[in-house]
Fold each of these.
Amino acid sequence: MKNKDPDLLLFHAPLLRQGMTTPKAMRDVLYALLPATGASVWFFGLSAVLVLGACIAGAVLAEWFFDNGQPRGASLGDASGVLTGLLLGLTLPPGLPMWMALLGGFVGISLGKVIWGGLGHNLFNPALLGRAFLLATFPIAMTTWVPHGGGGELTGVYASNLALPFMQTGVDGVTAATPLGMLKFDQEVTPLTHLMFGKISGSLGETSGVLLLLGGIYLWLRRDLDWRIPVSILLTVMLFSSVLSLIDAARFPSPLFSVFSGGLLLGAIYMATDPVTSPVTPRGAWIFGIGVGVLVMLIRVFGGLPEGVMYAILLMNAATPLIDRYTQPRVFGRGADSS
Amino acid sequence: MKKNESYEEFIKGIWRDNPVFVQVLGMCPMLAVTNSAINAIAMGMATFFVLVGSSFLVSSFRSWIPKQVRISCFIIIIATFVTVADYTLLALVPKVHKELGAFIPLIVANCMILGRQEAFSSRYPVRLAVMDAIGMAGGFLLALFSLGAIREILGDGALFGFDLFGENFEPWVIMILPPGGFLTLGVILLFFNWFRFKKDEFLAEVAAAERGGN
Amino acid sequence: MNLGAQMNTDGPGSLRLVMTLAIAGLISGIAIIGIYESTLPTITANKARELREAVFKVLPGVSEMQQLVYRDGQLIPTEERRKDEQAVYGGYDREGDFVGYAIPAAGPGFQDTIGLLYGYTPQRKQVLGMEVLESRETPGLGDKIYKDADFVGSFSQLSIDPNIIAVKKGTKSRPNEIDAITGATISSKAVVRIINEAHVEWSVRLPLPGAEPPLREAENASAGDSP
């Protein structure tokens, strides 16, 4: 701010400023995602860089394209576009053509954020909205998983990444099933250590559970995240799947498998906790988390799809305004009935 | 002067008061059957036939239809034309009829058609009523076709079933599914409103400049 | 503005209102009967042709067909079928010898009901062909159950003893196994399940091999499905 008269400082409220600002919070989340991003590059090589880069480029392009020059709703400068792009990229399969990733980033920001009125006004998590669009639009490419590289092949690029815009991947590469897909369609269980350290095929960010947890702990220490949401999601999932495995251990996965497989950690720690699209009240956060956990397990166990984290979070996003409304704390001095 | 009058009634339905893009009427067939250009055209033609036919009859008999039972009479007339269209399509193009399914009988419930009878045909002479109906139905057809064409090109890589991009095209599956209808319509409406906004802005600027010049 | 002019008078009597509606209804009824009568032959012929084409597709080598209605515990060759009766179609070759049954079946798919017709020969307990008649499966994925030529083709000479089993692509080893479509496992398993269920239902109803109803002479080729 430029002061015309340095002796007279005029500010509007809030007069007390906290250190926490939107760009800072966004940057913290980006730092927290660095280990998992690094792991995706370690496991999938240059492909990871290409897909993540395309997503971020699409997201930032949409931010720039729809930037109307007004301070309200404009968020080009606060890295939230970059974060949306990165989060979206981490949920995508490593072999996805770059043009689809770019489109996903663009749609995520434009339909997920801009048309709602910008950052803070959106009902749904933009990254997940971009992913939902991609999954509905390109169901085959979005469920074609390349086998994990084992790690260290940093210069490897999957041919399908380089498909021309609007064109198919062309080459029929080797494909592999994700642990959840193997469980659902072939009743094969993946060892837990593979799930925790990333020796599995899956989307870019869901290969290493331990690194995602590390980032989550960092965010919790920095007070960037409402711990109630991931904790309630993970507890609900563990409880649900404990009950199921007590009923039939052969058919249903163990609690730890449920937690470490698929995009659950990524979703629970980084997407469900999006402050814009999750409830603000502590009680609401618990309800939100339990809702996500129950929906994830319902979709995984009884639904047609192997994975349901995305739809679970999006559905609970839609319920957030309602949750917030019914969990407002009682105003001091008012009766319990006069809400 | 007279010629201009009928032209005016015609063009307003095509563009200025387009039933879909401006009045946002008839959304049900608009979203449901526009997953390919041919379906959209079939639906548009059926609606065209029904609207022009009923407008002609309603306007011709407008002095004989008592006000108290006018809505019932309009509906009888519209429903008759819809039934005729339904059976004709079933006999001539059974494949298209199967795709359109329940949406042909539902033309009866298209609020655009009843709206035109109530607002226009029952008040104006036959010539104007028919011009108005042709304009509105033409605008509806145009809107259906543009939606159907966009959705078929992106969703199937084809137009009227002819392959446009070759073997390797990756179809945007969402475009042929119902959400694709909402997305496409939303984007088209966005551009329509943006265009009108820009036009108003431009006209205001011109007016301001003229005032300044004087 | 005639409507406006009428409003100022006392308004028409009820007789006039009733008469107007009656006349409108009468004219409308006549118009509808006219269009119904004039299009009915074409519509029936279209339906019959569609059915014949489907039957000929699922029963290769067939040149004649007739509807067999399941009535009082046996199959009766007749064109008349009541709403609550089920029917199959018998296919016969040029000499009039029985080839197989075309059996309509339906059941839940991934999105909506899948309706299909499959050819079945009781002599060899084999499925001879499969044609999807109705489906709203996901375009690009589930619609491969009728667009994927390999999948549709695998329903020929497929043993259904005791039932068909869908297995992962490339692991087919027995004559009653079939490769599921990659990426459309649910839709392809739905097709197999629908056929298996219809097979269980019909196998007790069909007469013993060799005792099939013979082709009726004076078969009216154009007659087909009841409306």
Amino acid sequence: MTMNNVDRRSFLKGLSAVAGASILCVPQGRAASAKAQVVVVGGGFGGASVAKYLRLLDPGIEVTLIERETRYTACPLSNEVLSDSRDIKSLQTGYERLSRRGVRFVHGEVTGIDPAGKKVSTADGQTFSYDALVVSPGVDFNYSAIVGLTPEIADTRLPHAWKAGAQTLLLKKQLAAMPDNGRFIIAVPKGPLRCPPGPYERAAQVAMYCKHHGKQKAKVLILDSNDSFSKRGLFEQAWKALYGYGPGGMIEWVSGSSGGAVEEVNADTMICRTGFDEHKADVLNVIPPHHAGKIAKTAGLVNSGVWCGVKPDNMESTVHKDVYVIGDSCIGGEIASGNAFPKSAHMANSQAKVVAASLVAKFNALPAPIPTYTNTCYSVVDHDWGFSVVHLYRVEGNQWIYVKEGSGISPVNFGVGKDAKPVPRTYRKIEAQYAAGWLNNLMADAFS
Amino acid sequence: MHKIILSLLLVGCASTAAARPDIEPLARTCNGCHGVGGVSVSGPMPSIGGLPKEYLKRIMKQWKYGERNAVTMDRIVKGFSDDQLDALAEYFSKQPWVPVPQPASEAVLAKGKAAVEENCRDCHGLTGNDPDVEVPKINGQWSKYMELELLKYRSGVFKMPHRKMKQAAHDMKPEEVSATSRYFGAQGK
């Protein structure tokens, strides 16, 4: 590397400041004031991170972030709101600090994308031209997959709370009002789902609340459409030690093939039905199956099941040129080996950095950077018990390679077989603390 | 004039093209937990920007080769080559060290200072910014992180190869752990 960091940054600043130099990078027909226009759809972790990093790496790029809400509520660790161990305010942020970086924040909903004309339009009739478009709309829910469920019912009576916010608070209220021997049912849809360990962390957080609020006889029943789950060994170990797991314990898990897949719910009788059985709940937390955010579908970006295919080098859509899809809507990673990108905030943040670096290189006619994709995701099951999973992917020959040496969950035990010893509690205690630090840093890395 | 600047910029372009500054995109993956430039904004996660290169190299390789225990980092580093770890160490060591002084009461500071004089001063200096290439700066490091690190040294269940640090951590009285961490956390430049 012949140019150090500072030199490169001033080099880029110089490029945008010197009018004569702008011929290097400004696209045809564009005013010389901006090197390029990037429009970002969606202000979650993916969208906010890409907007921030574009401005950080090259202030000559104009960035417009279009988002439906003016405040964002982060999902990671939002299960802690249910157990009363986290204030939802700690998950909320605005876009002021991104604006201070020069990101133009537009409060609105993108309803149309014209990839040929390279422009997007919003519900209130505005249009925005782009040189590159980043689509990061998160997931939307397929309510009709479950008989008896509608968006209105989810908002008022059977909250999924799978987008943190009002439904999280409704679910918390329902839990607090639940009879002491009540039954809290979590219905988990078939994967891939946003935050793969989330439902199981939620079971622990609900059990934690019950344990400390006079509801020791309560039950948390997980009705799962899947046959296994993320960090399973860690969750089962913790559930057993902390709350009792299995028949007679507070937490019970029913797999998809044992009849866990919920097909129908009734908000009046609070009964949910699987192909096998009926279960009555006091609180019914039905998480509907997900798909790529609506705008991704409208724009024709969905081409791999219900998700958007992207290129390993830079997350460009495999459908439309100059359109990049990041976050929960995309599908990537080493899919064939079962190591697809997890749908997580950290993964979206990492993908965003790959897109930002790639676009900055492109607009400055620099060589394409080598991408690295990383994820870290902590789950907290008690005040002093946490654990994590890490993922690492590199790209080789236009393919994602899952680097298993740099990936994996916290150890369940030390040693194997009859030599296996439980991991000391200190490990779990430290990871519970790290979880809070990770959330704060990740939010800052995306939104400030 | 513009022509001269333009040709200089083109030279700049060409040399950057030859060099492929790949370490920056890789280093950016650390920002999610450690902050931009390695300046953490949250207590449990350490700032790493501006720490000595030799220190960063050593701990990452010790984690990678199982000579030192961490709860998360030892998994992450195993995915990177030694060259990548060296380059990351070099990159972060060149970032400025940005202390984040965290307020503490006079009583805590006095107690912490006394403990530091006894246990830490030799290596870290009285304010935690000893310039020794082997010693991490801890002035204005996050006190929560330092408390957790001391917990690792004191618990006996973590492999922590630095014998002198291990001894010093063991010599502390339980009530000195928090005061020491908060004392160093309160220091500025």
